[in-house]
Amino acid sequence: MKTLAHIPALWTDISELFVALGDAHRQRILLSFEKGERLTILQIVEASQLSRTAVTHHLKVLERGGALQSEKIGREVYFWVNKAWMQAALQNVLGYIKDEI
């Protein structure tokens, strides 16, 4: 057994993704995006049963976890699913499970 003094940065990022995906409201927000779609906070709030404040909180958690990316254009902030990052993170976990790492 090897001893680790620190969790590798890659795994810290992965843990944030699992935190982001570990809530049903955040899962619903992610699943509300169509392929390649960019949505504003208002559009997400309209499709949700949550308040704007709650949606904003969940969007921050999803973005911190790497599941979403955002860009401010004028007064609007657009969000989209960061599938490439999530896929890479989950592949790293699968590689560990398969003992490829």
From TrEMBL:
SUPFAM superfamilies: Winged helix' DNA-binding domain (SSF46785). Residues 7-101 form the HTH arsR-type domain. GO terms for molecular function: DNA binding; DNA-binding transcription factor activity. It holds the Pfam family HTH_5. It comes from the Bacteria. Gene3D superfamilies: Winged helix-like DNA-binding domain superfamily/Winged helix DNA-binding domain. The keyword Transmembrane does not apply. Keywords: Arsenical resistance, DNA-binding, Transcription, Transcription regulation. One of its GO terms (biological process) is response to arsenic-containing substance. SMART domains: HTH_ARSR. This is Winged helix-turn-helix transcriptional regulator. It comes from Methylophilus medardicus. The lineage of its organism: Bacteria, Pseudomonadati, Pseudomonadota, Betaproteobacteria, Nitrosomonadales.
